[in-house]
Design brief:
Blueprint: E1 23-24, E2 32-38, E3 44-50, E4 53-59, E5 62-69, H1 74-84, E6 94-100, E7 105-110, H2 117-120, E8 124-126, E9 134-136, H3 139-143, E10 154-155, H4 156-168, H5 172-176, E11 180-186, E12 191-197, H6 200-214, E13 221-225, H7 231-239, E14 244-247, H8 253-262, E15 265-271, E16 274-279, E17 284-285, H9 288-302
Parallel strand pairs: 1-6, 4-7, 10-17, 13-14, 14-15
Antiparallel strand pairs: 2-3, 4-5, 6-7, 8-9, 11-12, 11-13, 15-16
Length: 303
């Protein structure tokens, strides 16, 4: 069993400009747990279910938050969480991230501490994410300062390539169900990262951590999630500088509002050859000839 569910083809990525990397533990935990299930006829069978464990984050010995997680990439989850909550601004401010599953905790040591941490974390909003994500108040205040690249483009055929890649991706979901997955793609459809967790907010934070650690910019990237396109997901995608957000699920009113506010292209209900483009229509390059060719091939196949 692979300990961590993310893959890293680095051919087109680069390290962060300084080359600095904080000291990190490698504490990936088992992703599934075997239980005995009894069906409607009284028959017993073995069943794999996703793991779920608490991870309490301590920053400079101060308890910050407890995250419920699958445990596949706890260091990246912690780093991305601090980044997306805007608690740490620069990677070299982080000295170390050490996970200890014997006490279900992660210790973060920063170089100079986090200025005003008590005031900045006093207001917390519980989000609609699976596993109940939370964001600290004030993030919406930063939305108007985000500017996504207006000239970014995504072709219709690349959308289909991304959907097909996710469909065939080996995953905990296929083995055990009950988890969400997030993925980062290039604008040509190359899979760069894939992370699963019990909540989509954890998976997106882990990808944010990976991007930050490896110096990967978001301007020419596409983000895919299996979960709903909520305001939390849109805000985090925008903070990562990613102009395209795709999902096999739908969106919410606030998610749509924030996407229009930051100029993000939202594609919902992505399944097979179907999708619904809800915002940022100017960025998607439609290819009717490509779609017609696919339909003609399908008809020949079933003729």
């Amino acid at each position: 069993m692979v300990a961590a569910r993310f893959w890293q083809p680095w051919q087109n990525s680069k390290m962060n400009e300084s080359g600095y990397r904080p000291e990190l533990s490698h504490a990936s935990a088992s992703l599934t747990h075997e239980v005995t299930a009894i069906d409607e006829r009284g028959r017993a069978s073995k069943l794999h279910i996703p793991a779920e464990r608490p991870l309490t984050v301590y920053v400079d010995k101060r308890e910050l938050v407890t995250l419920m997680t699958l445990g596949g990439a706890p260091e990246m989850l912690t780093l991305g969480y601090l980044r997306n909550q805007r608690l740490v601004r620069a990677l070299d401010d982080v000295v170390s991230i050490q996970v200890d599953w014997s006490v279900d905790a992660v210790a973060v040591v920063t170089r100079k501490g986090i200025a005003g941490i008590e005031e900045r974390t006093a207001k917390k909003v519980v989000t609609t994410g699976c596993g109940q994500g939370s964001v600290f108040g004030g993030l919406m205040d930063e939305v108007d300062r985000i500017h996504l690249p207006p000239d970014a483009r995504l072709t219709q055929s690349t959308v289909y390539r991304i959907v097909d890649t996710i469909r065939t991706q080996q995953s905990v979901y296929k083995q055990a169900g009950s988890v969400h997955g997030c993925a980062l793609f290039s604008n040509t459809g190359e899979l760069l990262y894939f992370v699963e967790d019990v909540g989509r907010h954890n998976a997106v934070d882990a990808i944010a951590g990976l991007m930050w650690l490896d110096g990967v910019a978001g301007a020419d990237k596409v983000f895919y999630t299996t979960g709903r396109l909520t305001s939390e997901m849109v805000i985090k995608g925008a903070q990562m500088g990613i102009p395209f957000l795709l999902s096999r699920s739908g969106t919410t009113q606030m998610g749509h509002m924030v996407a229009e506010r930051v100029g993000m292209s939202l594609l919902a209900r992505c399944s097979g050859r179907h999708f619904l483009l809800l915002s940022g229509a100017e960025r998607l390059v439609f290819e009717p000839d490509f779609l017609d060719a696919l339909e003609a091939e399908r008809q020949r196949h079933y003729a």
